[in-house]
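Quick bug: Ceramide kinase C-terminal domain-containing protein output formatted oddly.
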Amino acid sequence: QIVRVYILGGSTDTIAYCLHGTADVTTAVLHIVLGESLGLDLVSVYDENRFLRLFASVSSYGYLGDVVYHSDRHRWMGPKRYDYSGFKKIVANRGYEGEITVLFERSELSQSRCYEDCVVCLEKSVEDFSSSSNSGTSINKEESDLARKTITGKYFMVSGANISCACARSPNGIAPYSHIGDGNLYLVLVHHTSLVNNIKLLLRLIKKTGTIDDLPFIEIHKGREFYFRSINKPSRWNCDGEVQVEPNIHAK
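Here's what came back:
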């Protein structure tokens, strides 16, 4: 009897790509056969009253939320529906107003990348283990040390990235300095500007060199958690490829 083993990756295989450095199926199978394991942060999403879902890669509001919502109407097209819906939404160039509050540790944005035996993730793992061994004392102190900032604007896209989101189509991902186990999100804010700038963003994402953080209409914040509140007509969230219709969320 044939036993089928499914390796979850999503339409872009970004989780496998970020963990293994490749989307190769044989590589993933070998990791399973060898019994290897690797820690990965998960992000929980809430509205005002309840828990909504978890995500492992990215949750995006605006452009990518609209793409995944409208692509459901064209499932008969297969994976090509994302290209079709993506093109339509790029041309439409809709902007959404929102208020974002980021809770963050008082440290500078790092430009270190997450590789095998990552020192940043290892240090965080040791810190979390130490905190759990001290009856929550260190954890409470950490929460009280978080700073807070609020930003309001009109955005083409708002993305909370838990990993770099690199994949074959985007070798560096939308958040190349994001780590898989440091307890932080990278909040990538794409301000609503022009169609030309949207195309510049897409062209930068597909390049093998360079990142998007030096584009003048891009704003990046690193934080432990964030709140988003929609102003005026809302969009939807794209949480790991699934539609989340509640616009006002708290992610941590």
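Actually, after a second look the formatting is fine. The mean pLDDT is 85. Closing.
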